[in-house]
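Supplementary Note 3. Input sequence used for the single-chain structure prediction.
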Amino acid sequence: MDAKFIEQMEKRLLEMKQEIIRNLIQENSEVLEILETQRNPKDIAELASDDTDIEILDKISANDKKKLQLILSALSRIKNGNYGRCLKTGKLISKERLEALPYALFCIQVQQEIDKRKRRN
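The predicted structure, written as discrete structure tokens, is reproduced below.
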């Protein structure tokens, strides 16, 4: 995976993270209170530091929580140099899949297997 693509995906993931946090601020005064305790925040990205992520996760809906956790996981994989690799097979996830779902954990084949199993259960 080329560095420019990964940089684009990181930017997109950070924007997704910021959007979730903006929505939370509008919906939840407890989240705003957590963020306001930060020192001299300059923007939403700074407000959404790793230090506050866990506190925020405690205050949000299950759906937003899952999405934010996936985004944080993807950002962590970028930092660790593992972004874009299927967690099960280690193969590269297609750029098209990552463009559609920047926080994808699995290549399309593995995800289809997982979805099939879920439908059976």
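Residues 3-27 form the longest helix (25 residues). The chain is about 70% helix and 0% strand.
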